[in-house]
Each structure stands twice: as structure tokens, then as C-alpha cells.
Amino acid sequence: MSGPSTYNPQNPALKWIEQRLPIGGLVHSSFVAYPTPRNLNYWWTFGAILSMMLAVQIITGVILAMHYTPHVDFAFKSVELIVRDVNYGWLLRYIHANGASMFFIAVYIHMFRGLYYGSYKAPREVLWILGVIIYLLMMATGFMGYVLPWGQMSFWGATVITNLFSAIPYVGDSIVTLLWGGYAVGNPTLNRFFSLHYLLPFVIAGVVVLHVWALHVAGQNNPAGVEPKTEKDTVPFTPYATVKDGFGMVCFLIFFAWFIFYVPNYLGEADNYIPANPAVTPAHIVPEWYYLPFYAILRSIPSKLGGVIAMFAAIIVLAFLPWLDSCKVRSSKYRPLAKQFFWIFVAVCIGLGYLGAQPPEGIYVIAGRILTVAYFAYFLIVLPILSRIETTRPLPNSIADDVLAKSGKQPMVSAALALALAGSLTLGGLDTAKAADGHGAVPAAMSWSFAGPFGKFDQGQLQRGLKVYKEVCASCHSLDYVAFRNLADPGGPGYSPAQAAAFASEYKVQDGPNDAGDMFERAGRPADYFPAPFPNENAARAANGGAAPPDLSLMAKARSYERPFPRFIFDLFTQFQERGPNYIHALLTGYAEKPANFQLPEGSFYNTYFPGHAIKMPPPLSDGQVTYDDGAPATAEQYSKDVAAFLMWTAEPHLEARKRLGMQVMLFLVVLAGLLYFTKRKIWADAH
User: Fold this and answer.
1) pTM (2 d.p.)
2) Is 617 annotated as a binding residue?
3) What is the pLDDT of residues 60-90, one digit of tens each?
4) Phi and psi (nearest 5°) for 354?
5) Is 251 known to sit in a ligand binding site?
6) Is 654 annotated as a binding residue?
7) Which residues cross the membrane (predicted)?
């Protein structure tokens, strides 16, 4: 189906190359003269968006791999050092992390479009099967990438998911041991996953080439589901599809950029900002949102082996769609019953995604089993029966007639609403699951200077927060990822390099060994990191009643709480990402007398906002405890606000640079989208 190539280079060098390797003619026939159905809508743009996202993930992944250390002792820290110390490392990290979610958003839209318009039907069976293979490879790649930061959810997600293979009779335990590289998830596991995560995107790229090849052999499907008959039914790929895809890609980039620059952790899990700890299991282990429907299917089956089979079958059944649905009419636009069942199926998938984020108990398990049956029934019962009994509407005589009919707009609106509902329920489910973990009361939303698209840190507040940390918190809590030189970085507390050096000199830092082989203490330097108050974790536990005080570097991103529907939807648009500072402030001021019926363990204190309410740390702040030089109120309320803001800076030291660059990128993309839109209208004026 590639178009006839008229490529005839005039340059002698290009002509010499073309005679020996006609790659120019191949590109011209495949991406310039290639005949494209003229009635394609914007849902077809997601094929180009997926190609773009694959390139983005490979490029950012290769650069990140140059700085990543695949070792259990250093992986978590290496990721943080990428964000903090590598030039624009924070940008690479956020692009790659959020890019995985964008990739799956695009692929789910691409797949649902294929289901709705029957793109799996003859002669495109191989094209569809290759797409399913790409999807399976994406799922494997995404899972392994989620493990690499080696946070709490990474470690325990790897433990739970790899353990599923033990359900396979006879060989299951051997497979698990092979994946782990031992008898528990550890360093060999991380090395295996890093190697495969680096390799698989290139395998995906290879299968994508086959996918595109199969597309050019069979030709593109279209909303009408009829094959092109005359030249009036098609337009050249360039400039028509090129400029249309370009406009759609830029619009998608605007959506992508919103997450990168304004809510980079919105789709992530707060627990993954806590270093992996095999001794502490998270209260509620959930995979990334794009695996939730299949996770719900897995948990809905009482048998472990049955759940694993059902989970994989839910994906593999997609490959058999060309034979399960034998109706000659492709597009659901002309199949009234198929259209209705399609939207029911979409609702089932959304429901499974919501249930996958809920605790596996009570009504959630029952609902999961019902929707699992409905999921498989759609493929194994509904589609085969509809193929035989459904009375379809008359098809248009040609693609040109379909264009003149001006049809095909309603599914776009319906799909957009369905996708919005999917995101709402799935993300809402995640928040509900967090609430079910036994969290304390919901902290009040505070007013922070760094909130919103133009928010900046209050340098005076950061300096006061640093003073509170130094005089109160530093006796127990470390700041392992903050160096003294960072105090003079742009967007920070606003110290000069000389002031940062003077501040560092007030600390004693262990160094060595010297020429005699002995360790010694010296005055701190700007390049040094804040020294820890205890030599090791055991010493920290012994000094604090058995509970080791956590490092505070990432505390503002490692703590979260429930934001119920619809507030968490508004959070996306208002760029709310201050859960951590709100929680820290509430925790520091949330000590109270325990209720009469509450059993408080010995050596613990009652805190309204701490999960379980029993906390080992005594009330750390009291009025008049720290003297401010700028005349700010010397109250516990003020101390807690200041130190919470300071800890937000330690967790997000590039926050101001991120928002500033984000504004520039967003303005550029909006202008570019406008130019492409009017260019597209001019080019397509005659085609419509």
C-alpha cells in the first residue's frame, strides 16, 4: 500500500547512494506519497504520538542510564543525585517517569480506537497481533523500570509480582529464583531488571518497525471501515497526515508538559520516595495505574494459579479478536449493538481499574469477580454472538461519501468523556486505598508561597526553617541528600557562597583515613553533606526507643494523604502538590491528649495526624524554643510552617527552575499548536 515513489535526487552524491541503497525512495513512498484515507479523525494521530513517546523514552532512558547505579545500596541515592546534581537531571527524570504514564495513556486510546473501528479485522490481523506483542513488551518494560528507583513501592511491587510466577506448576519456583537471581529480591534482581529495562525498548522499536511495515502492506483502516476505491478516497501522507499528526502531537505535548513542570509527582506513589526496606511492608501495595485492571482480575480469582492465568489471558485474548469477531462490517459506527456493548466494555475496564486500587476485601472482591466475568464475556460470548445476529447499518459507498456525510464525531466526544471518567475513578481509587491504610486525620490545606504556576520559595522562611532544623531536628534527623553548597544555589535559601562556606564550617565532619590510616574530624566544607546525627541505623534506634528517625531530605514528597473525589481532580488543574508540607505542619502541631478509649503503647505519644496515632517522637516544638533574627513570631505554629517549607525545598530544590522553564515551554507549545492548526486548516481545506 506504499505510494508510488517519484523520488529522483539531483545531487550526484544522493543519486549515487540511491542507486546502491534506495532508502530515499523507500522513505518517500512510505511517508510522503503513501495514500492515506481522507476521513481519518484525530484518534488516528495517537499512532504518531506513540512513535514520538517511544523515541522520548529511549533517549531520556539512555541518558539516565549513564548516571544510574544498579546496586541496591546505591540505586535510590543515584536517582536522587541525578535529580539534584546532573544538569537538568530533574527534567530527564520527570520526562521519563511521567513519559511512561503518557505512553500508556496513548496506547490505551490507540487500542480502544482499534477495537471501536474494527482495525483488527482482515486483512490487518498480523498488524493487530504485532500491536498486542508491543503492548506486552511495554508492560514488561514499564514494570522493570518501576523497580529501578528502589523505593518502598518498587521493592515490594517487584516482590509481589515476581512471586506470582511461583504459582506455575513444577517450574514456578525455578522461574522465580531465576528472576530474583537468588532466594529473595536483591541486587541480582535489580541488575537483571536494569539490563532488561535497557534492552526491551530497542526490541519494542524493532517490533514497531514490523508494525508499520504491516500497516503499509495492508493499508490503514478508517472510521467508515471501507477500503479505498479511487484516488478521491485518499490523500498523500505528506503534507496532509503529517501536519495533522504534528498538530495532535503538539497538543499531546502540552498535556505532557503540564505534568512534567507543574505536577510531576501526581501520577506517582509517595512511598517510592522512601528507600526500599525489606523489613517494613507498605500497608497497601498497588502497581502503577496502567496495570490496575489486570491486577483486579488477578485478585478476583481465589486460586493463585487461576489468578495468574486469568491476568495473562486477559491480555492474550486480544490477539484472537480477528477470529472471535467475524462480522464483515468493521466499524462500530454501523453496528448499533456492537457500539453499545463497546461502551459497556469501556465501563468494565474503568471499573476494574478502580477496583484494582481498592483493598482486596468485602464488596470490592465481589465486584471484581463480576467485572472479570464481564470482561471475558465481551470477547468470548458477546462478540461471537453479535457477529451472527446483529443487523448492521448500510455502509457508505466510498470513503469520499463518508467525508461528505460529516459523520464520526460522536464517538470522539464519548471516548473523551470515558477517558476522563477512567482517570477520575482510577486515581480516586488510589487515594481511597491510601485512606484505608489507617492514616490519621486529614491535614488542613495551608497557604504556601511556592504553590501555583508562579510560586516561589520565601527565602526568609527557608532560612528560618533551616534554623529550626539545625537547632531542633538535626539532633535526631539527617539530611543525607543536601550539601552545604546547596544553600547558595539559585531558588534556595538565598545564601551567598561565602555564607554557605561559613555555615558549613560550624559543623564537624569525619574524614580520612589520613596518612597514618586513622579517621579524623575537620571543619565542614561547602562540598560536604549535612552530617548525620548517628553513626548508623542501630545507634539511631537505640537512642530513640527502637524507632530510627527517618531522613528528612525527601520527607515532603514521601508523605501524603487522601484528597477525596472531586478534589484530587481539581488538584491536577490547580497544580496542588503540597500534601507533604501540609502533613509535616499538621504532624508537628498535632500532638494531643489521647482519647479515653485509645490504647497508647508505652513510650509513645498521641498524634492526631500520624497513622495509627501512636508516635515515638515526643512533641519537638514549643513556643520560644528558637529565636528568629527577623522578628517572626517565636511560636510552635510558625516553627512548623517554616520547617515544612524548608523540607519542601530539600525535597524539590529545583522547583523554581522547573516552573520557570515550564512557563516558557508551555507558551512555545501553545503558539506552535496555533500555527500548526491554521496550517492544517489551509492544507485540508480542499480535501474536505
Assistant:
1) 0.93
2) yes
3) 999 999 999 999 999 999 999 999 999 999 9
4) -65, -45
5) no
6) no
7) 42-69, 90-111, 126-148, 160-183, 195-215, 246-263, 305-324, 336-357, 363-386, 661-679
